[in-house]
Amino acid sequence: MTTSRPSGGRRTLVAFHAHPDDEALLTAGTMAKAAAAGHRVVLVLATNGDLGLTDSATRARDLGAQRLAEARQSADELGVSRVEWLGYADSGMGPELYADPPGRTRFVRAPVAEAAQRLAVLLREESADVLLSYDARGGYGHRDHVRVHEVAAAAARLAGTPRVLEATIPRDLLAAAVRLSARVYRYPPEFDIEGFCSAFSARRDITHRIDVLRFAAAKRAAMRAHASQALADGADRTLAAFLRIPRPAYDLIFGREWFRDPAHPAGAGVARDIFAGLP
């Protein structure tokens, strides 16, 4: 099936993420802003997040199904028109790569060409103008995030998608925010502050800085939708830590989102609109 391009100058934005909740953390404001402007927004998830850290009671149920349901709730908060899952299982972030679950392949084991073809089908169906992905480091190095970067680049070539924007954060700004908040809030044990502060991208590599301050409430609601990822056996996880930040400070911290366009002309400056300059 082919979906025609929206009329009246509207565009189609496809946000491709590794796990349910990644969209809330990195691109929710941009997605909500595009939807509010009348553009079509599509969320594509590589995995169902079945290896996400959570509490014991939640893990005893079907975590993957719950996380996909949470992603749909998050999408509703952002005005997303369509949510799709490519059918892969979470590869996890520890040193051990677990066996594939019945009937599923862990995303990092999937051939890039195979996964790219699945994504390219969706990009063609949607006549996508912009595809959101991750930078080459996968942000903080998660194996599924790195694979998203690889798959997105290949799929965009197959589908002829005009623009790929790699979601990222200027690492100097991130380091300052994390270290400042750590003075008043104790981050969960699995949160590697120093590692996080050396992740993502250098400021000079940022090509798009998007003002999403008006959509901070929608972004916060999208984070809140991923309730299974707030706690792990009684201890706060990163999402819960972010949601405990008071609104004025939250809006200041999360009121901008950043992207890197590998095709952005040198010297063109930092763009403020993800669709600017498209034919």
TrEMBL record:
It comes from the Bacteria. The keyword Ribonucleoprotein does not apply. SUPFAM superfamilies: LmbE-like. Transmembrane segments: none annotated. Keywords: Zinc. One of its GO terms (biological process) is glycoside metabolic process. It comes from Nostocoides australiense Ben110. This is N-acetylglucosaminylphosphatidylinositol deacetylase. GO terms for molecular function: hydrolase activity, acting on carbon-nitrogen (but not peptide) bonds, in linear amides.
